[in-house]
Amino acid sequence: ILLRTLTVSSRSALLIFAAIVGLGGGLALLSPERHVGDSHQHVAMATAVAHGASPRAPSEGRIKPSWFYAFIAAPIVRVVETAGGSPHTAFTLFNVLLLAATGALLARRVSAAAAVLLAAGPILWWLDKPHPDVFTFSMMAAAMVLLTSAPWWSLILLGLATAQEPLAGVALAAALISAALPVGFADRRVWLAAGLSVVLAFIAPLYRLARTGTLGLSLSDIDFH
């Protein structure tokens, strides 16, 4: 019934956005602060950037390869801290807004059913965790939706995803080829977006190269199982 109502509504995008904000906010309020994977490091890096320091985990003193998500979240962390909240709350707020915006885009460009299935699916588990999964998911989902109608936005979104997760560069490369065929690069917007996406994709490795002398793209830390 909910899917049918949203599908026939001319305001389904707004309804999806509000629903995900309400659902995500409610789940976050019921959930204690918890960390998974390297989320402690993302919080440390965002807090450091929020206070004008370099994006590194202070406890370890070494630069992390995937600091882009923390860098983007840093302004929200600063605002929430100023209001007396914790960095964890700032990341939750950032994740909820990202996912709600993705759901609204899906409802507007694809369907309300797709928005509910994707934006209100298993990805909800990551909302209250300072981890880049929601960010990467949102960038990739939005990029796929816009690939045929607005490829320039897709390239920028995939560049953002690659700035955090280097393996997303495979999708970016495929999108660059797709945008170029048959005469996509005749559009100045595609050229500009392609250049910006490549710059975004190389931000993290070039930063590491300048600071440590290595690109930091080793796969040795990945659990392939």
Characterize the main sheet. Answer: 2 strands, antiparallel
Order of helices and strands: HHHEEHHHHHHHH
Helix percent band: 55-70%
Name the poorly predicted regions. none
Discrete helix count: 11
The amount of beta strand, in percent, is under 5%
List keywords for this structure.
225 residues; mainly alpha; 66% helix; flat
What does the secondary structure layout of this molecule look like, with pairings?
Layout: H1 2-8, H2 12-30, H3 39-50, E1 56-57, E2 62-63, H4 68-82, H5 87-109, H6 112-119, H7 133-146, H8 151-164, H9 169-180, H10 188-201, H11 203-212
Helix pairs in contact: 1-2, 2-5, 2-6, 3-4, 4-5, 5-6, 5-7, 7-8, 8-9, 8-10, 9-10
Structure write-up:
This protein is mainly α. The protein is 66% helix and 2% strand. It contains eleven helices and two strands. Helix 5 (87-109) runs antiparallel to helix 6 (112-119) and helix 8 packs antiparallel against helix 9. The termini are far apart. The mean pLDDT is 84.
In short:
The chain is mainly α and 225 residues long.
